[in-house]
Amino acid sequence: MDPSGKTLLQCAADSMANSKASEEFGVSKVAQSLSTAMYLFGVGSGAIFAGPLSESVGRNPTYLVSTFCYLCFVLGTALTPSFGGQVVCRYFVGLFSSATLGINGASVRTNSTR
């Protein structure tokens, strides 16, 4: 522990953006960390569906639709006036970004075996 009583992990999780956002929404820094947690939960839950969806409808439509939805929810995250809206939008940002993260390996493999 350092002299301020914080552990290394707590110091790493304390960022300037988190501090500014918690001030803007009037919530604690711990509550603001929920936004990041929901993003990661969305990435994890979206990866379950992205692979099978890309195999059934194709990779290009999956990329295009998920990227469009991702951009809409990123815009929603930026423009929402409430903390609850930010948390919900961050979940969907993670959900739709997981398609790009989850199926890019299959796209590379498909293109390299031709």
Automatic annotation (TrEMBL):
<dbReference type="InterPro" id="IPR020846">
    <property type="entry name" value="MFS_dom"/>
</dbReference>
<feature type="transmembrane region" description="Helical">
    <location>
        <begin position="62"/>
        <end position="79"/>
    </location>
</feature>
<feature type="transmembrane region" description="Helical">
    <location>
        <begin position="30"/>
        <end position="50"/>
    </location>
</feature>
<dbReference type="GO" id="GO:0022857">
    <property type="term" value="F:transmembrane transporter activity"/>
</dbReference>
<keyword id="KW-1133">Transmembrane helix</keyword>
<dbReference type="InterPro" id="IPR036259">
    <property type="entry name" value="MFS_trans_sf"/>
</dbReference>
<keyword id="KW-0812">Transmembrane</keyword>
<feature type="transmembrane region" description="Helical">
    <location>
        <begin position="91"/>
        <end position="108"/>
    </location>
</feature>
<keyword id="KW-0472">Membrane</keyword>
<dbReference type="InterPro" id="IPR011701">
    <property type="entry name" value="MFS"/>
</dbReference>
<feature type="domain" description="Major facilitator superfamily (MFS) profile">
    <location>
        <begin position="1"/>
        <end position="114"/>
    </location>
</feature>
<protein>
    <recommendedName>
        <fullName>Major facilitator superfamily (MFS) profile domain-containing protein</fullName>
    </recommendedName>
</protein>
<dbReference type="GO" id="GO:0005886">
    <property type="term" value="C:plasma membrane"/>
</dbReference>
<dbReference type="Pfam" id="PF07690">
    <property type="entry name" value="MFS_1"/>
</dbReference>
